[in-house]
Write a structure and sequence with these properties.
Layout (H helix, E strand, L loop, with lengths): L1 H39 L4 H14 L7 H13 L6 H22 L1
């Protein structure tokens, strides 16, 4: 029984570690996405920092990326930035890759 329990414990540990890493990647991605959008809107460094935090917080509204995309689209449109959902989704995908790379390098 011990080997089965050890395997189960190892699986649970790996699952927890993978979930934590996924959360960190998404949070980093959202911060990078906030920086990208802030650059599009010509925000100051202080405004950029606050905006990045708001983008990270927006992800907690519902499961998935739609809440973040909706926030970015609304904010970019309100700031007079010409964009569409495809551009925002590409930026999201690019920032996902960058976030994963940054976290892998940090380990």
């Amino acid at each position: 029984m011990t080997s089965f329990e050890d395997r189960q414990r190892a699986f649970e540990t790996k699952f927890a570690r993978d979930e934590e890493m996924a959360f960190r990647i998404i949070a980093r991605r959202n911060r990078l996405l906030g920086v990208w959008a802030a650059e599009q809107m010509d925000l100051t460094p202080a405004e950029t920092d606050a905006y990045c935090k708001a983008v990270v917080q927006a992800d907690f509204e519902e499961a998935g990326d739609e809440d973040v995309i909706r926030k970015l689209m609304g904010d970019l449109t309100a700031a007079g930035v010409e964009t569409d959902e495809g551009i925002v989704r590409r930026a999201l995908d690019d920032r996902s890759i960058e976030a994963r790379r940054q976290l892998m390098e940090a380990q």
